[in-house]
Automatic annotation (TrEMBL):
Catalyzed reactions: an aromatic L-alpha-amino acid + 2-oxoglutarate = an aromatic oxo-acid + L-glutamate
All residue ranges annotated as the Aminotransferase class I/classII large domain in the record: 30-349
The protein's Enzyme Commission number: 2.6.1.57
Needed co-factor(s): pyridoxal 5'-phosphate
Domain of life according to the entry: Bacteria
Record's protein name: Aromatic amino acid aminotransferase
NCBIfam families for the chain: hisC, PRK03321.1
Keyword Transferase in annotation: yes
Recorded family membership: Belongs to the class-II pyridoxal-phosphate-dependent aminotransferase family.
Species whose genome carries this gene: Nocardioides euryhalodurans
Record-linked HAMAP family: HisC_aminotrans_2, Phe_aminotrans_2
SUPFAM superfamilies: PLP-dependent transferases
One MF term in the entry's GO annotations: pyridoxal phosphate binding
The protein's assembly and partners: Homodimer.
């Protein structure tokens, strides 16, 4: 071959399988439950703020994202210097692997977990160390701590875990952090933190404050309903946040996204109501599934996990017939997002047709 050749690791990057859009069906409302999106429209005031920002699209965004940094610093009661904004928390994961890993350095994470992890790690020519989740879908934190070596630079803890659902507790996280050496950055991916209703939830802010090696990543994509605008943030010790900002794409977060995020933070009350309604739907769905014989793993995000093995593809086909799109993971299972009540009713019907 004579043409330009990318680094060999580029060919090794696994493809991101995005949730499929629904296929329009005559006489049937179809629901997309494949990407953990928020079924609600934007929060009050957000479309207006975004429209106003869109009118200034001939200008570059505020590169410092000052308003959004200020709003987040005030909301979380942390110094601005401890924050790093990015185009979604997926971008933060890329940035932290880029900033902390030389080629061949190890990144430990649970598996199955968020599919962007292996993509980001491979793209940086770092090495993935995957630790299987337990039978109930929880992180095996003892095994993850044992998997840390001198080459480990980063451990990713996904809580609630996408796609299996359970959340790590504060007691589990504390015990884990006590075992991890200080040179290893522990990233707590809290993309679904707003939905957690555990009896021992993680207090991410208190945890990062008491550790020099803990970073939280959060997003406006899920609870806040801004998936289409790509904005997320990290909270962590100043040197870590500084490194993340250093490798970020200049002007990455658009003016419209910044304005929408600031307006969304201002609509806290409406946000909490919506999250509460989605959590109530989640509990109703989990109870309905139990009635038809499906005990799904503890669901602490805005989705549930069906372990189906080689029935996964059939499950997705029957879902499609019922007018819902799920996210199948071939040979393993399917993740189904919490949607509108009618959509969730169809999920119960789907489960009824697939006796466990
Ligand atoms: C959806 C999700 C994200 C956030 O993605 P964005 O890039 O912010 O849209 C991060 N981590 C996990 C585990 C997720 O499921």
């Amino acid at each position: 071959m004579t043409g330009p050749q990318p680094r060999p690791t580029v060919a090794a990057i696994p493809a991101y399988v995005a949730g499929k859009p629904p296929r329009p069906r005559e006489g049937l409302t179809v629901f997309k439950l494949s990407s953990n999106e928020n079924p609600y429209p934007p929060l009050p005031g957000v479309v207006e703020a975004a429209t106003e920002a869109a009118a200034r699209m001939n200008r570059y965004p505020d590169m410092g994202s000052s308003e959004l940094y200020d709003a987040l610093a005030a909301r979380l009661e942390v110094p601005r210097e401890h924050l790093a904004l990015a185009t979604g928390s997926v971008a933060l994961i890329y940035q932290l692997v880029q900033a902390f890993c030389e080629p061949g350095d190890e990144v430990v994470y649970a598996w199955r977990s968020f599919e962007a992890y292996p993509i980001a790690v491979t793209a940086a020519a770092a090495t993935s160390v995957r630790v299987p989740v337990l039978a109930d879908g929880r992180h095996d934190l003892d095994a993850m701590a044992a998997a840390v070596t001198d080459r480990t630079r980063v451990v990713l803890v996904c809580t609630p875990n996408n796609p299996t659902g359970p959340a790590v507790t504060q007691a589990e996280l504390d015990a884990f952090l006590a075992k991890v050496p200080p040179h290893v950055l522990v990233v707590v991916d809290e993309a679904y933190v707003e939905f957690v209703r555990s009896s021992d939830p993680i207090d991410g802010i208190a945890t990062y404050r008491s550790h020099d090696n803990v970073l939280l990543t959060r997003t406006f994509s899920k609870a806040y309903g801004l998936a289409g605008f790509r904005v997320g943030y990290a909270v962590g010790p100043e040197p870590v946040a500084t490194a993340l900002r250093a490798v970020s794409l200049p002007f990455g977060v658009s003016s419209v996204a910044q304005a929408a995020a600031v307006a969304s933070l201002a609509a806290e009350e409406a946000l909490l109501e919506r999250v509460a309604a989605l959590v109530a739907e989640r509990e109703r769905l989990v109870a309905g599934l139990r009635e038809v014989g499906w005990d799904v793993p503890e669901a602490q995000g805005n989705f549930v996990w069906f372990e189906l093995g080689d029935r996964t593809a059939d499950f997705a086909v029957v879902a499609d017939e019922l007018g819902i799109v799920v996210r199948p993971f071939a040979g393993e299972g399917a993740r189904v997002s919490i949607g509108e009540p009618e959509a969730n009713d169809r999920v119960v019907e789907l489960a009824r047709r697939f006796p466990r």
